[in-house]
Amino acid sequence: MKFVPKVQMSPNGPSFSRLVQGYWRMNEWGMSSQELLTFIKQHIELGITTVDHAHVYGIPPCEKRFGEALKLNRGIRDSIEIVSKCGIQPVRDNSSTRKVNHYNTSKKYIIESAELSLQRLGIDFLDVLLIHRPDFLMSVDEVADAFRALYDSGKVKHFGVSNFTPSQFSLLQTRLDFELVTNQVEINPLNMSCLEDGTLDQLQALRVKPMAWSCLAGSRILLENTEQAIRIRSVLSIIADEIQAASIAQVLYAWVLRLPTNPVALLGSGKIERITSGVESLNLQLTHEQWYRIWVAAKGHNVP
Length: 304
Ligand SMILES: NC(=O)c1ccc[n+]([C@@H]2O[C@H](COP(=O)([O-])OP(=O)(O)OC[C@H]3O[C@@H](n4cnc5c(N)ncnc54)[C@H](OP(=O)(O)O)[C@@H]3O)[C@@H](O)[C@H]2O)c1
Fold this sequence. Notes:
This protein is of the alpha/beta class. It is 40% helix and 15% strand. The N and C termini lie far apart (40 Å).
């Protein structure tokens, strides 16, 4: 079994495990606090020490249920890096007066949201706080003020963004005297937009690693019966045989990890055997041609 290595996310940023455990779907796993604690310990054993949360994940909040598991073993906090996200304001936070889910990156909401994440998780600081989605009403001066206040109070060590375009990333960076440490973006053969819109080019230029979410497209590539998904699966199966991968999921992780920005890949499964199998993908190396065969299958045409 390969032990998942640590990588530095940006020149002055934190170290994350190359594979990160995502907790968005945690409520679907139906685990008790004790079972969740066991799951956390198991992925730490594999070397997956970084965990991904968001203020908006789950009803009841995933952060709260994760915090209850951490309470059962206080020492665990010191062995993990906790990422959370803010900036999506759901109707349910105040359903009597709020009509639609919306984005809110005001200073007040960023600080309130980060503080609520800390309270739910039962911890003193977040390793990284991300702005979850670009907000059309985002004033970067306000975001910078919020980040500075959270940093000065010791509540957040590093900051980043998620689903930002290169220009939104640059815009926010102009107001900060520290670097954004990641842009968490979707990367899989059904969604290759960040390969084409400059997002990954910008991160490579800055030596900032992306966090790749939904590497399996939330299992759509494994299950969907569209022509495109069937075409991709068929190529993935052939390549799995060529590189002796145990599953097409492993080939998908290898396809994402092959990118020259050196992404860290988020795993979304709640099944430890699938996480363990994901770790094996670190042993796999795709050639340029194998990587492009998956690209071609996704596009449905050859490279120009
Ligand atoms: N920043 C953002 O906007 C954003 C958006 C979405 C997600 N995320 C983050 O990214 C993480 C991963 O996203 P995701 O859950 O969509 O990831 P994913 O790995 O693409 O999908 C995971 C889903 O695939 C299922 N699955 C089926 N077969 C599998 C196999 N062989 N191996 C692994 N999983 C298999 C899992 O079910 P089982 O649990 O039954 O295995 C789970 O429901 C999230 O937890 C969240 O932290 C961020």
